[in-house]
Here is the input.
Amino acid sequence: MLKTLIKLRLKGIFLRQTRSSKKAKKNIGKIVLMVVLFGYVGIVFLGMFGALFYSIVDALHFMNIDELYFSVMSILIIMFCFIGSVFLTHHEIYEAKDNELLLSMPISNRDILLSRVFTILILNYVYEFLIAAPALFVYIVSVGMSITQIIIFMGVILTLPLFVLALSCLFGWLLAHILTKVRMKNIITIILYVVFMFAYFYAINSIEGYIGWLIQNGESLMQSIEKGAFPIYHLSIAISQGHILSFIIYLVCALAPFILVIYLLSTNFIKLATTKPKVKKIVYEAKEMKTNSLKKALLIREIKHFTSNAMVMLNGAVGILFCVIGAIAIFVYKEKIDFILLQIPELNDMIVPILCLIGIGVNSMNMISASSISLEGNRLWIIKSLPISTKDILMIKLGLHLLFCIPAGIIFSLATVIVFEVGILDAILIIMAPVLFTLFIDLLGLLLNLWKPKFDWVNETVCVKQSMPVMLTMFISMGLAFVIAACYIFMGDFIPLDIYMYLIFIIFIVANIILYYMLNTWGIKRFEQL
Here is the structure.
């Protein structure tokens, strides 16, 4: 039974990546595309970590602290496996939708749990391979390893993800416990997801900067690891020196948490799988009934629908987060920005177009309207049956995008205006640029979604990840910023910069008028045909 469950879970993961609708069959072209894409990403990461290990191996070996080499490797594996699998662990073990179905069948709790654990382990081994494989190759080529060292290295590779899984299960349990106590769990999920993603990208971008510091402080750093993280210390000693006793100590430290976590999860699996969030009892109090207009009620429905799924919000409106974070970063790094402007005075003459372009670029990551029709799914008939005109329905869906994205874009633009101390006219242009662009993307995305809606989806995230309207909107919106900059490079000798900027504004205004007209003519007819 365990083998069957593992096979079904792996098949489910594969189908989620290669099939986007309930009735769609296997698409060989899409499978090949996914293999090529993941293969390319894998090669990039293998090369990146290979370059990292190649840059430190000779220096650490010369200083006779080879164990630090393997300490760095193990820390990177733990960090990337944890960041990459923590949310999957929370979803697969604590919030799986088929828990009650499986528990009603004659299947042991141990088999259900182990099938989920095995799925997560596979992902951890993939992350580990991207780091451990180049680390092993570089060390063998540069220094060499004995048979004992290679055997110990393989033992570490097989067991280290088990320790990471124990950490992920613990954090997943804490996350599940917290989310059952709060009302706005989607907001908390988004915040945690963003924090982990920024930690991930920060680590990737900061690795090269710490190489010199790592080599200069290698001995003191190794002493700190020995005192504060002795399992990693013994792991590195075991591999670098072929020390059997250190390998046994590491195995105990790695396997004991995993065995304990699996035991606790297996004995409490039914409780974990069937526990429902506590609902606060509200004592009814007679109050005057408040009513909303049909338009306002429909807008509130759209807001609640969009904010009910954290993944939909992240994929459809990630630009909002970048606007807020970017606004804060501009104030934090104001001194560095002023220093750059002093070093490159030519930028001062181009600061207004540059800020307009940056505002457009940040807001290009918002694509809410491009999936608003598709997200209705088989519930589309509900809003079509309401006593409200088609135009009002489309305007409300259009307004949802503007309601979320324009305030964030204005916040970012105001931050740039304050930091760079531009004039009133320039400030108006900097603020209006992302507003006009947001309206353009809003209209374009809604029209594309009316043209190619996707109602037969497996889950809502398909609408914001794999549908054609979203993909087209994403490429067009992100590509426009590059096109605007590229066009000026070729036309800069013929058109002054300020004239070119005003021309772009006029083009956006005309494009918005045309798209708005299309929405009120073809768009209304198309919606009524759906």
Notes: The longest helix spans residues 28-62. The mean pLDDT is 81.
